[in-house]
């Protein structure tokens, strides 16, 4: 592992076994201040188990966890004090109101009097739950329950924030608000989130790990991961289907074109033009296609160079969890 010198979270060769089953299998990474690390992976890949170990809620079978220099196994409380954790699902204590719950958490976190009130006010404002403070948590909508959990996680303004699917169950407006909140907090913190939403990686993560069956199969910035896609630097165009006869052949005959894929799209036809593997990402191909379209009189609805498709990289590097269950047998 090459831990950055300013890393706030340093994880070395983490392993978790449940009986004979290895859920996390030698995971190493570090997170520096200002980084938002996204954990991606299919269901059952080991994301939640890793997060629970990093927060000190689950003891690893092997490996090291250090938070701002505090070793989790030796200085558990000092490490945990620096962490805010949003677990999967809804907060416990659902018969409490959000205000009672946040007062309880403030107390657990050692915040008293005006300091507790100021921390609660700030977390309530940031998560926009002011309108439901007096209503029992179990009567709240899923989105509000998730935001109460988030308020709990950020209450003590922790240096490290670990959130398991923070936007799960939120509507698009709430998702946007939570992503904005994470981006606002990011410069001062080290943040880990897990997500199934691939667009979230591009929207808020500075780096992403793809985890499959307990192992890291990719680690990079969103742009680096997208550059591993076979669509990276391909040129896509959409035109009326009525004009599209013979177009695939004409595109395929252009110099430096490795392949052309065509997909019908209702009244339109979409083409993706691939360059050979390792071709330089310059603008030559897209310029040539634009000129060709002019020459042939094609009506182009869109013409763009593909940055790469994260969903395709994800599918190529991971296997569906239906292939095996926790016993390792085919499902
Ligand atoms: N307490 C446990 N006992 C036995 N097996 C467990 C336990 N907790 C998790 N597992 C298994 O470990 C594997 C990893 O689970 P984990 O919850 O970490 O996956 P995940 O990547 O978070 O999945 P999801 O995206 O569905 O939340 C799964 O096969 C799960 O069944």
From TrEMBL:
<protein>
    <submittedName>
        <fullName>ABC transporter-like protein</fullName>
    </submittedName>
</protein>
<keyword id="KW-0547">Nucleotide-binding</keyword>
<feature type="domain" description="ABC transporter">
    <location>
        <begin position="9"/>
        <end position="238"/>
    </location>
</feature>
<dbReference type="InterPro" id="IPR003439">
    <property type="entry name" value="ABC_transporter-like_ATP-bd"/>
</dbReference>
<keyword id="KW-0813">Transport</keyword>
<comment type="similarity">
    <text>Belongs to the ABC transporter superfamily.</text>
</comment>
<dbReference type="InterPro" id="IPR027417">
    <property type="entry name" value="P-loop_NTPase"/>
</dbReference>
<dbReference type="InterPro" id="IPR003593">
    <property type="entry name" value="AAA+_ATPase"/>
</dbReference>
<dbReference type="GO" id="GO:0005524">
    <property type="term" value="F:ATP binding"/>
</dbReference>
<keyword id="KW-0067">ATP-binding</keyword>
<dbReference type="Pfam" id="PF00005">
    <property type="entry name" value="ABC_tran"/>
</dbReference>
<dbReference type="GO" id="GO:0016887">
    <property type="term" value="F:ATP hydrolysis activity"/>
</dbReference>
